Amino acid sequence: MNLVLDCDPGLDDAVAILVAAHHADLVGITTVAGNVGINRTTRNALVVAQLAGLDVPVHRGAGKPLAGEPVDGSRIHGESGLGNAVLPDLERSEASDDAVAYLCDTARSVDDLHLLAIGPLTNVALALRRDPHLRRHLAGLTIMGGSASAGNITSVAEFNIWADPEAAAIVFEKAAPLTMVGLDVTNKVVFGAAETARMRAAGTPAAALAADVTDFLRDRFRQYVAQSVVPLHDATAVVAATHPHLFERSRHPVAVEVRGEHTRGMTVADLRPPALIEAIGPPGVAASDIVWGTDVDAVRELIVKAVLAS
Q1: What is the dihedral of CA 147, 220, 208, 37, to 10 degrees?
Q2: What is the pTM of this model?
Q3: Do residues 239 and 19 touch, judged by C-beta distance below 8 A?
C-alpha cells in the first residue's frame, strides 16, 4: 500500500509514523497544527523520521483551522508535543511549506495511494477545495477521528474533529465514503507497562522514543482517569488502513456539527436501520464506514512489532 500520512505529532502520532513506515510504503508525511502548533508538529515529524532513518519527505501544512482560533492538546502531549523525551538536534528540513499542493499532486501521480489523516482535517479540506476531484484519485481515505458515542475533548466531540469541525464537515461531505477510525474502536486498543518495556528493550533510537512517549502518555493519562493503560489512537488507525481485515465496520450517514453550543465537533452518525432511513426519506448526508471493533491483541502486536523493527 502506498500511504501518505497527514498528522500532528503528538505522542501517539510519533508511534503511528513508525507503524506506517513498517506496514506500508510511506510515500510522504504532511503536518497540521493540532496536538501542538505547526512549527512543533513539523519538527516532531522530522525528528521521528530522522531517528527511524526514514527517507520520507515532510511537508508543512496548515497552522490554524478554517475558522476560529487554533487550539492544541499540549495539556496532554506536553509543550514540545513529545512529552519529556530528549530530542536530538534536527538534521533534516521540510520538503515544502505547501502540504495541500503536495496532497493534490501526489493523489494524481501515485497509483494506489491511500491517504491517512490522524490529526485535524484542515489540510484535507483545503486539498478538496483546491481539487474537488481529489477523492476519486485516492484508493482510500481513512481518518482517525470522531466518535459515534462519547467524545474525549467534550462529552460528544473527539479532539481531531473538534479542533477544526468546519474542515471535518467538508471532508465527510465531499470525500465520502471514507473510513472513520474513531474512539469507538481506538479506546479498546490499550497499552501498558509491558508493551512499553518491550519497545524500550529494542535499543534503537526510534523505539526508545516510542517508549518515552508511551510512558509519558500513560503517566499523563493516569492523572485524569486513574488507570495504567492508554489507547494509542493514531497507531490503531494506521493498522486499520494497512490490515483492514482485522476490523469490524458498518456504513452509516455521518454529519459533523459545527454550530451547536454543546455539540460543536460532534460526528453525528445515523445508526437507524437503512430500511427505516429510506422509508422516512434520504438523510441528505453522505455515508462513511464507521469502525467499531477489532482483534485487540493482533493490532497491539502489529504496533509493537513495527516499533521493534524501527
Answers
A1: 70
A2: 0.96
A3: yes
